[in-house]
Structures are given as C-alpha cells and as structure tokens.
Design goal:
The chain is an alpha/beta fold and 241 residues long. It has nine helices and five strands, in the order H-H-E-H-H-E-H-E-H-H-E-E-H-H. The chain has a five-stranded mixed β-sheet. It binds iron/sulfur cluster.
C-alpha cells in the first residue's frame, strides 16, 4: 500500500455515500499537500464526517495479510470531544468478533482507567495501530503496521486530538520517531513528527497491566499527567486500578 490512501478510491466511496446516505453531503476535495501536520483538513464542510468514508474504506481493505483471517475490521470509536485519543496495538478475539476496540478484559480495564480520569468512554476516541486482528493475538509485523498506518494517520488528521495516550510498545513504535522500549518511554511527554501540536504520552497497555498489576501505579501517574494537561481535577492519592 502506498503511504497515502488513494484519494481517487476515497472519492468513489464519498460519491457512494452522498448518493445512498441521505444526510451525507459530498465534501470538498483536499486543497493541497504540505507537511502532514500543517495540511488543511481533508474535509471541511459542516455536517460531513471523514471518518465514515475512511471506515468504509477500511472495511473493504485487503492491503495486508491480516485481511485474510479477520472477522471484522475494528476501525475505532468514540466522539473524541474531549480532545483525548487512545491508540492501542490491535484487535483481540473479542474485538474481532464485535468490530469494536477494547471490549475484552483489557477493554474493561481501559474503560475503568478512562472513568478514573473523570471522563466517559464515549467522550474519547479509541483506535488501534492495526485494524484487523493478528492471528493468535501476536504482535503486528512492521509490514502490517506500515500497511495500516495511513488509516491511523487519517484518523488523527480528521479528529485533531490535542492529547494522545499510546498504549504499549506497538503504538509507540508506530507513531514516535525513536524506538526506545515502552518501559523507558512511558511517562515522558513525546511528539509525533507529523502532528507536533498533540501532547503525547506513552504508557503500558491494559493487557500488560492484567499480567503485571503492580504497574498500575505508574500508569495512574501517567494518566494524572494527562489529566493535568486537560485541566481535569487530579487526585494525588494512590490508586489500585
Ligand atoms: S490491518 Fe489495516 S492494512 Fe491490513 S487489511 Fe486490515 S485495515 Fe487493511
């Protein structure tokens, strides 16, 4: 797959949606190319949702071998209205079955983490580095990650989050320029080269926390850091989960 999503295909989907979804208005085409973070949004007209078109595209995607074994594409969900986006690794069995991100045991824990921050799950956006389940829950290969990256990048462009929490090594590797281990990166404020305005913090994946509950304390610290960025009331007491 080329680095950019083929916009002519995207245009076909937009055309399809404009014809078949009564509330969907055909958006303006992109107006120019520059540095990704500086680029004008692909879709600006009021009432249009670029994520709909991108989801349609992902659901038909066969750009990497994960398409052969998936049941459902797990695109992402949430309003993102708080400006906070979570990025995890990839779908597991429960996500592959339901088509929703973070719905298994690790998802329950992520939901509790979001609530502990004083937020609702539906007010953040949750996505993964790859949209289709790696068989046996293995780590996505660099080639699979690269094939799927344009979807994640377009999600970020469309949502324009102000804060991002990267859950685990794979998400950090996908978005950050250095390849430090998550144990060294976690808790440090980072920047994504193409999106320098987003304040980013890597931390441990909830699945890791299920196996290593003693790490919950440091993850809570990381969440508190983000709460400070978001001007949310920060509880300085210890937290078990
Ligand atoms: S993982 Fe991503 S690139 Fe691979 S088939 Fe699924 S949507 Fe396409």
């Amino acid at each position: 797959m080329s680095e950019d999503l083929p916009l002519n295909d995207l245009a076909v989907y937009l055309e399809y949606l404009s014809r078949h979804v009564p509330t969907f208005a055909l958006p303006k085409p992109p107006s120019g190319r520059g540095k990704s973070g500086d680029r004008e949004p692909l879709y600006e007209e009021e009432g249009t949702d670029p994520l709909i078109a991108l989801r349609v595209k992902a659901e038909a995607c066969q750009a990497c071998p994960l398409s052969e074994t998936r049941n459902k594409v797990v695109f992402g969900e949430g309003s993102g209205r708080t400006g906070l986006m979570f990025v995890g690794e990839g779908p597991g069995a429960d996500e592959d079955r339901t088509g929703r991100p973070f719905v298994g045991r690790a998802g329950d824990l992520l939901t509790r983490m979001i609530v502990a921050m004083g937020l609702k799950r539906e007010d953040v956006y949750i996505a993964n580095t790859v949209k289709c389940r790696p068989p046996g829950n293995r780590v996505p290969t660099p080639a699979e990650r690269a094939a799927c990256f344009p979807y994640l990048r377009e999600q970020i462009r469309a949502l324009k989050p102000r804060f991002m929490i990267l859950l685990g090594q794979t998400a950090a590797q996908a978005l950050l320029p250095d390849s430090e281990s998550i144990s060294r990166l976690r808790g440090t404020e980072c920047r994504i080269v193409d999106f320098p305005d987003i304040r980013v913090i890597p931390t441990y994946h909830p699945a890791y926390l299920l196996r290593n509950p003693e790490a919950k304390k440091v993850v809570w610290k990381d969440l508190q850091t983000v709460m400070g960025w978001m001007n949310l009331p920060v509880d300085h007491g210890d937290r078990k989960e």
